[in-house]
Amino acid sequence: MDALDLARWQFGVTTVYHFLFVPLTIGLGVYVAGLQTAWLRTGKEHYLRLTKFFGKLFLINFAMGVVTGIVQEFQFGMNWSEYSTFVGDVFGAPLALEALLAFFLESTFLGLWIFGWDRLPKRIHLACLWAAVIGSNLSAYFILAANAWMKHPVGYEVVDGKARMTDLWAVLTNSTALAQVPHVVAASFVVAGGFVIAVTGYRILRERGLGLVPGRGNARAVQDATVPMRRLPDMWRTSLRAALVMTAIAGAVVAGSGDLSGQLLREQQPMKLAAAEGLRHDTAGAPFSIAPGVEVPGLLSLLAAHDPGATIQGVDDVQARYEKAFGPADYIPNLPVVFWSFRVMIGFGMATVGLSVLGLWLTRRPRRRQGGDAKPVPDWFARLCVLALPLPTAAIVAGWLLSEIGRQPWTVQGELMTAASVSPGVSLGEVAITLAVFTVLYGVLAVAEGVLLVRHVKAGPELPPVEAAPAGAVPAHSDEARLMPTLMY
């Protein structure tokens, strides 16, 4: 093991950890903005409660994402100086746009939203949140455009051993970026939808006095159940239905953009496609491998080229072609990781979308029991929603691993190899120390994030007071103000 290996581990650990927060921030921000929009348009009290409840979860996650994202920038200079030297002129523009335009837009208007409750007019306050949400998505676009350039470099020329950008528009409209952006952003909506579905399922069980295990009650939940659900009969069903719709629609977008990405892989990164399928040799009518030994004839060719008889390049043949084009080297990525990451991504992603479709069918209309209150969400389905919480996150992380590990041994496809990207002056010991520090620090942050999220989810939204106010009493605050828990941290 040398400094290169540990530098790759360090970047992988910090990037994946940061990536745990980014998709949830992107999707949950839109979800909260949609809830507040519904409250402004309808005036219904439960939309306000849901906005404040999920708004806090959104802010906790956003703060953690910002903290963990700062580390990424320093790693380019510390561990990957050769890479930074080569791509700096190209990466400078999209990253500057991300920082100066997207992130400032996001952070500025999010601050106005946090401190603007009861201070700004309702419409302006809502507009602040939508501006922050737009900033989050713009930030994702610029980052993904820079990342797409590494996989399919365009709009540049190499001068004195460095990439020099010749066409910013070509970089921002790279065909790989145009496929990757909707794919990742839609997957982020699936992650957020799965999160809301799980939280809602938990709250439904808790307020019914039930636990995750059938037949076993929850003492704390029984206390919560003293406030009857009939006082806010539509709140959790509304939350669940909105998340189910968002997840199902986003899942369809993920599938469509994934199909386009597969076609581009065949043209631009044939080694990644072959590694994802474990295809060793060029094959006409290539089969799709569901698992080792379980194949569907011709399906891979159909998916990658929309032609069941098309030829798909294999790992060994691509290796031979790359040796002729770039010289002797090992151009094959880690096959087991790429192969199984692809299947985890598809399997867990499809399971999450399938759960949303099932939920939409189950909650299509309230089911009333004779002599009882409306119970639109079955207990078993609420438990299933909670248990499915890790699936969308695991799917999107697996997809990111597929995307980045599948590109190896290149940092910039066809131009710069990973072994030539590491800083020459960094020692094994230095990288080992920083890797250990980051691992411990991120572990502490993970515990803090988990504690904050769990505490807030268990507390739930503020409910209306059980006792009616005395006749003739004048409240000190408006109803709206009383319903707004602080969002100041």
Please explain how this structure is put together.
With 489 residues, the protein is mainly alpha-helical. The chain has helices at residues 3-19, 22-42, 45-78, 81-115, 122-151, 168-172, 175-207, 219-224, 235-268, 270-277, 299-305, 315-326, 335-362, 379-387, 390-405, 428-459, 479-482, and strands at 156-159, 162-165, 283-284, 288-291, 294-296, 311-312, 410-412, 416-417. The strands form four sheets. A two-stranded antiparallel ribbon has the order 1-2. It has a two-stranded antiparallel ribbon with strand order 3-6. The protein has a two-stranded antiparallel sheet with strand order 4-5. The protein starts with a helix and ends in a 7-residue tail after the last helix. Mean pLDDT is 83; it is low at 219-231, 367-374 and 466-489.
In terms of topology, how is this protein built?
Layout lengths: L2 H17 L2 H21 L2 H34 L2 H35 L6 H30 L4 E4 L2 E4 L2 H5 L2 H33 L11 H6 L10 H34 L1 H8 L5 E2 L3 E4 L2 E3 L2 H7 L5 E2 L2 H12 L8 H28 L16 H9 L2 H16 L4 E3 L3 E2 L10 H32 L19 H4 L7
Antiparallel strand pairs: 1-2, 3-6, 4-5, 7-8
